[in-house]
Specification:
The structure is a single chain. This protein has about 325 residues and is mostly beta strands. The chain folds into two domains: about 170 residues, Beta Barrel (Elongation Factor Tu (Ef-tu), domain 3), CATH 2.40.30; about 110 residues, 2-Layer Sandwich (Ribosomal Protein L3, Chain: B, domain 2), CATH 3.30.1430. About 10% of the residues lie in helices and about 30% in strands. A hairpin with a 2-residue loop joins strand 3 and strand 4.
Amino acid sequence: MAKIHKPRSGSLAFYPRKRAKKETPSFKTVPGKEASEVKPLNFYGYKVGMAHVVASDMHKKSPSYGQKVSMPVTIIETPPLAVVGVRAYEKTTEGLRVITEVLAEELPKELARRIKTLRKHLEKKKEKKSDLGKIEKLVEEKKVHELRLLACTQPKLTTIGKKKPELVEIHLSGPVEKQLEYAKEKLGKEISVREAFKELDFLDVKAVTKGKGFQGVVKRFGVKMQRPKSKERRVVGSIGPWHPPTVMWTVPRPGQMGYHTRTEYNKKLLKISDDPSINPKGGWKNYGIIKNEYIIVEGSIPGPSKRCVAFRKSIRPAPLEHHKIEEVSLIVTK
């Protein structure tokens, strides 16, 4: 039998391993903007927890083709997003730059917890009523490259006990003229997850992972422990040679573990529903009761319960052949 040799298993793909700068994730790139129809291209929700479902396997080359299979899923509660503003971008040699933005006349009072200068802004707005006229003029002059909606989450609709909303940008598809019409229609109103996605779509999910604090090299990088008689067991055998007289960045070192921003690709959206029967007796562990629309995503996603999660349409080719799961017949939450 071959000798098992595993000096370390930590990936060098993610450096530096620092704490995330912000807990609310965001996407810089969103696919589908060239479509003629205008609709939201990304959305936000709160991670509830994991369960497993019973569904039909429709992959013809699978040994379980046509049979009922059990698979792990993650449930994300997606209360509607409140559209609080519209932001216009122009294209420069250094990328997109904000030209101007317009806020809605009526804003959620909880938004003052996120924007400290909101009260002063509202006082100025009473004196001078603002509208989308400035953005309309810029669109006519062909100075606007794209429009995005400024939206805020509504954690007050959930049972997680959070009051401070997240302020996020929602990307839109279609030409700028149609984006402006859509923005006029939605300003001051709400958008739901059904407007952006449909069942059996593939999503990319982005969130901040569960924080584990300061950890050693054995837990952080999977370094093999030293023999029992050694002076120290949970250390690296050597941190490098005499020359060059430095510790290379590839050498496993203790430090921060977890609370990193991570993106996972091609998660299949199995179901969008608002059926309250999904709640187990006593509510979900570390979360509570689901009161709004929710989505069921195949597999696991980053982050603990109650963490804000961003998702978009998948940017990579979807593995259709291996994920032909349809007809979710049973959701087991126990």
